[in-house]
Each structure stands twice: as structure tokens, then as C-alpha cells.
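Q: I have two molecules that I believe assemble together. Could you output C-alpha cells for the complex as a whole instead of separate predictions?
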Amino acid sequence: MLQEESDISLIIAQIVQKLKGSNLYAQLERQAWASLQRPEIKLESLKEDIKEFFKISGWEKKLQNAVYSELSVFPLPSHPAAPPEHLKEPLVYMRKAQGSWEKRILKSLNSMCTELSIPLARKRPVGEQKELLNKWNEMGTDEPDLSLFRPVYAPKDFLEVLINLRNPNYENGDSLSFRTHLGLIQVPLKVKDIPELKECFVELGLNTGQLGIDDSTQVPPELFENEHVRIGQKVLAEQDSAAAQQYIRQGSPTALRAELWALILNISSQPEDILYYEQLKTNVIQHDLLVDSLIYKDVKLTASNDDYYFVFEDYLYQVLLCFSRDTSVLNHFAYNSASPPKSYIRGKLGLEEYAVFYPPNGVIPFHGFSMYVAPLCFLYHEPSKLYQIFREMYVRFFFRLHSISSHPSGIVSLCLLFETLLQTYLPQLFYHLREIGAQPLRISFKWMVRAFSGYLATDQLLLLWDRILGYNSLEILAVLAAAVFAFRAVNLMEVTSLAAAEAVLADLSTLKVMPLLQIFLFATVT
Amino acid sequence: MAGKVKWVTDIEKSVLINNFEKRGWVQVTENEDWNFYWMSVQTIRNVFSVETGYRLSDDQIVNHFPNHYELTRKDLMVKNIKRYRKELEKEGSPLAEKDENGKYLYLDFVPVTYMLPADYNLFVEEFRKSPSSTWIMKPCGKAQGKGIFLINKLSQIKKWSRDSKTSSFVSQSTKEAYVISLYINNPLLIGGRKFDLRLYVLVSTYRPLRCYMYKLGFCRFCTVKYTPSTSELDNMFVHLTNVAIQKHGEDYNHIHGGKWTVSNLRLYLESTRGREVTSKLFDEIHWIIVQSLKAVAVNASPSLTSSTANDRILKYNLINDTLNIAVPNGEIPDCKWNKSPPKEVLGNYEILYDEELAQGDGADRELRSRSGQSLGPKAGRSRDSGRTVLTTWK
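A: Yes, here they are, computed for all two components at once.
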């Protein structure tokens, strides 16, 4: 009892500490002062009256949402004496692996830099600044010579690193047994099985209405859709983050999605936020970074060629170029196993006072990175709002897809979850694919790293990301990947090569995500 | 089983021929006995021109109505809509209702338009009322964006003035005629770009009017960002969306060809603008289509040239569904056919308007539930909510 209490007070103390520096705190203070003018606030019962005022005016709700947001994002300290590295990643071997991976990436970036004799950063001459400002809304028409740039890494390079991960403390013996994991990932992380997933994703069950299934044209809307929309509107009116998160597990109506996501991510476009974005834009105008070219290249190679997202090319530059310069993103490294690459001012190698993070936000984009932003363009067309939403999505979810950690939503766990599900519930398929040299993870990895962006139709992708927000977890990506294999199992059993398997799974654009998930979790005989 | 359908075409396109062959239809020449002739526009003109006096027999179907150019040619289209509106007004139909400024409430879907050189003086009068406006000149008989340009000064269209001394070489034949319309310079933009809609509508009969809209229409985007600034009036890549024009722009991307499906458009609009506005938009689009058809006859050939792989697949399926409706069950055509096709053969078409059903008894709601038709899930349902705005089909 005492332990719990002290745990909670520790958590409370931490959250209060975090919120004290926030804008909300300043606003609440101002509101409290202003409320003294109100007749109902009496000196004798000051505290209760102000609390009551906050409740009625909706400020308490905002505070609630902020607290909820902190709880969702920041991991709770397991032990008061745990050092900060443990918050990033408790397992030493994982930390080490992430460290070496980072060194490789940075080396690759630096050598590209040296080869091309391009500085990591340079100040733009005034003329160039003016030009860029004029072109801000159509940077897509720029045709810089990007032929010499290559992406720093691609998902498949990252996969090779994960395949070689080993836990030095784990001895699984030389003899193969039925417990031997036949997949590519060879680390013993705990992943859920289907009964546990069913419990976790209970709202996706057969008896619960879903958007993505029960809103199809054959189903009369009175059965589910109308009521669901009505509830959604109510949730929005209440401005309750926690309720929104619960609600969205059954999917979001298209018209409400933008607002719901903003509510769940606790994003409200305050003037300060718009100002902050404008400041980032100024940074872009004034300084040119090497990573900018990487971003350009990535957008040109991926989003520009996509059937759905090509329209939003210019938005992508506006978001990603600003993102690279946003130092507030550095905060998320407290709970990310990754660390921001450090660079030193020329000639001052090793001197900490001359160390800078590069890029300023500490995130080096890889091939396909822009696809994290693209689907959001379907929801938000105001650049600073779009930016905020993307940034929050990144520091809550997407970063886990390209850093090595033991977190249940980390890419390593997702890969292991995928392989385990396949091996356990579709053993014949798994074995067959392995025999023909088509390890399933080699095909599904890219889907998961990109959170399926660019592989699914946009409306389906948004329904999937609804559930990521609703369950505050990326595990659904692994489940979907397994469900896709299950769906195409018959065809896959007939292929005899990796290329043929890839071909069977090349086009996911016609898939309906929710029925696949539902069938796999709830309607398959296990 | 009765004999196989005999087909002819003078358009060598695989999307057509593959569809005929997969049904096991028999290819014949136009001099033989044929049932189904997919004609090019030129052939239609010859076949149905007054001189040849060609008449279709009862077991023959073609892919165009004889008066299709009433919708293709811009001047005829405008004439027909104006005439239709006046007729409705004369009948006292509620559709022709106007507001206090004299604007049609329900039939205001064509911007102010004049024929040149015939209406030149009328146009000048209108132009002078708002001299800073932009107008768009479109040649009557051309397609694919050819010959279109924008003007904002009278001097730019001096040639078309009837009194002009230079008009002697501008023949009065319909080939040189243009329509000039008020240019709408605040179009809906997506990603800062202008786009248009390419929708496929199949008209199977005129009386009663039975038409179907293909669900998989698409939007075509400009490659360049839109700007209403007058300096860009000459830049056709900003203002015109025809693929033929965009294809030659520097930024044209051959993998996707600057297109979105209509369902994408719907998703985007619903997400960013809300459900009601989007449903209203699509209702109104359908309304315009049906009214235009009622005003007149049917359009000439859509382009069967495919620009991308996806495009080819789309057009193949489109022709497939079209044939399924037009020649149900692969039976030899019979001009006495009058039944509505059953829902299963519609494929990706939806019933846009079925006059017989619309004129049957009972409210719209009853009709829809009886025949299982709807104009798309959201559009149909929104009407259930009892709106009395004239976006119903009666």
C-alpha cells in the first residue's frame, strides 16, 4: 500500500514538474488571477471557488488532457533510482546495438558530406533567402541536382542490423526444438499471442461496431454508424482526450477525424504555436542544411510518385524542413533509445562546448521518411497545424519504428510479434516461405517501418492509424502484417521464390484493413 | 442459345477489343450484318447525317446517340441549357425559380456565357459592367484543351467583333466560333492546385431518361500551383487541367499523371470540410449532370487512350461495365428492350437517374428502398433526413 502511494506521488511530482514549464501552466495562472474579479470567488473559500471556476470554464478539462497526454507519452519511472539510460532503454545490449547503428549512420552522413564537399550547414546568402521565401509554397518546382545524394539508409539496411541482434545472456542451446524461432529476429522479447491480443484489442471484436466494416454501403446506418457519429460529436464537444482515445478504437468518422486526432494528441493551435512554426520557417530560410537535400530526394522518390500524395508535395517540404530544425524534438530522446548525433564545430572535435546536435532536431531522415507526413495532408491543410500534428505523431509513435529498443511498440518487438504470430498460427505457410528463401519478415518489414503508409489506400490507412492512436500502441501494425499474409496464404503457398512472394504481396491498395484484422484475431480457429 | 453478338469498331483500342473478345462476340465488318458498332465520332456523323439516311434496324446498337454533339459542342450546349431553362420557366416549373436578383435558384450552373461572334455586342455590354474580370475563350468544336485562352482586355478578342474589318477572314462557319464565359478565378484548390473532374456517364435510353454514373471517375490536377495573378494568364499549365496540355509541362509526372479518384477527393473534402458540405457538393454535381442531359443529347467519345497502366485498367473495366449494361447478358440487341437492368450488372456504375422509377408513385425514399438504388451511400442517406431542397430527382 505504501509502495503504491509513494509510486503515485512520485508520478504526480514528475508530471507537475513537466507541466510547470508548459504554456498551459502560464495560462492557468493567468486565468486564476483573472478569476479573482469574479463575484463568485470569495476569499474564505478561495481554493475551492477557483477550482470550481476551472471546472465550469473547461480549464480543468484542458489540464486533464495535458496530464493524460503526459501519461501516454512518457514512460513511468520503474524505480526512483533508475538512471536516465534506463528510461531510454533498460536492456544494455539493445543500447549498445543502437549506439553502433547510430555511429554507422553518422559515418555515412559525414562521408557523403566530405565526398561532395558540402557543409553540414551553411548560412544562405541574402539573395538566396529571398528566392526561397518567394518559392515557399512551391518548393516542389525546384529542381536541384540531387543525383549525387543518396539516402543515408533504407529500411532493408536497418533490417540487417536487427537480424544480427543477439542477447549475450541468452543461451538457447544448439538443438532445434519446437520452441525454436524460425524467423529472422533472434532475441527473446516478450510478445503477445492471439488470446492476449484479443484481450488487448477487445473493441475490435465481432460483436462491436467498427468503422471500416459496419459503415459499408450494405449496412443500414441506423445500425451503428449514425449513433457512432453522434457519440463522436459529443466527445468533441466535451473536449475530453481520454474519451476520444477510447472512442476512436472503433474508428473515426471521416468528418470528425481531424479534430479527434488533434484532441487525442492534445494539439490546439495557439498563437504561440503558429509563431513557433513561423520561427522554424525563418530558420529554414536563413540556413541550408545538408539534410535538406536528403529530404528533397526522399520526397521526390516517394511521395511525389504516389497516387494519393503527389498533390501535397509542397506541404511535405514545408513540414519536414522545419522539422529538422525543431530543437524541441530533442526532448523525446529522453525516452527514445536513440540519441541525437553530435557534431563539433570545425576544428573543435571533442570539445563539449563546441558540440552541436545535427540536425538540430537530432533525427536523420531515411528513405521513405516523408511518408509519415503524407497521409496527414488529407486531414490538415493549414501548415502549422499539420506540422504540430506530425511532430506529435513522431515523438509518440513513429520514432519507435526506426530505433532499436525492447519497447513493446518498438520495431524489434513488432518484427518478433509478426514472426511469432505467423509461425504459431500459420506454421505451414511460414515453413514453406522459409524453405523457398522468402522469409516473411523480408517482405513485411517495409510495411511496418512505414506504418503501412504508401501501401494501403488512404482511407484504409487512416482507419488503421485511428487504432494506433486509440490503443496508444503500434502492435496493430504487426497484427495487420500477419493478417495480410493469412489473407493471401493460398497464393503464397504456390510460389517458389522470394520474387514471386513479393509479387503476390506487391499491391495492398485494395485491402480492407478492419475485416482483415477482425478475421485474423477473432474469427480464425486457433 | 441465340447467335452471338456481332460487333464492329473503327477504333483500334485494346480496351475495347479485349472486352468484345472476352464475351465471345464475333467481329464482322460494317458492311455485314452487325449488332453492335462502337463508332468513332467521324463515323457517327456520316452514319447519321441527313444525306445518307441510314437507319438502324431493331437489332442494332451504337455507342452514341445521333445528336450527341449537342452536348459536345460548347455553343450548342449553352444554347440548349438556355433554351431548357426558358422552357421550364414557361411551364411554370418550380425548378425554374429565380431569386430576387433574377438568378436561377436551381439551374444556375453555367457561368455567364456568350457565343462569338454572334453575341459579341451583348458580351461587350456585360464585360464593361465589370472590366477587371477575366474571361475564358474556348473554341466550340475542339477538345483536349486545344485553342483555349484567357483574356482580360477587350482588345484581345477584337477579331470576333462583328463589325471588325478583320472579320472578313473569320468565317461565319461554326468551325471558327467560340464561346466566351466568365472565368471563375477562385476555384477550389487542393495542395494549391486547380483540378477538374472527369466523370463517366452512360445514357442507355433517352425516353425515358436512364443514365448511370461510373463510380470511378477521377480528378485531373494542374502541375503548377494556381495563381489568379494576371501575369500568369498566359500560362496554360496553371489554368487548364486537360492531360493533353499538362503532359507537355516540365513537371508532368508519368507515373501518376496528376490524377486522383473521385473517392479520394471525397475523402479529402469530408476530412477537411465536413460531411454536409461534401454531400451537398456531390449532390449538386449529379444534379447538374441530369439537368444537362435533360436539356440535350449525349457527348462524343471519351478518350480511350490510356496514359498510365492504372488508366488502362480503369478504361478496360469501364467499357466492360458499359457493355454489361448496354447489352445485358450478351443478348442480341432488341429495340423493344425497356427494363431497367438488375443491380448485379451495374458493376461500378450507379444509377444516376431513372425516369421511370422517378415518376413512379411513392416518395423518393420508398423508391430507393424498393429498388435498392442509391446515389452513393452518403448522398442517398442525407436525403433521408428529410431535406426539402430541390436536390431530389422529381
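A: One point stands out. The first strand of chain A starts at residue 121 and ends at 123.
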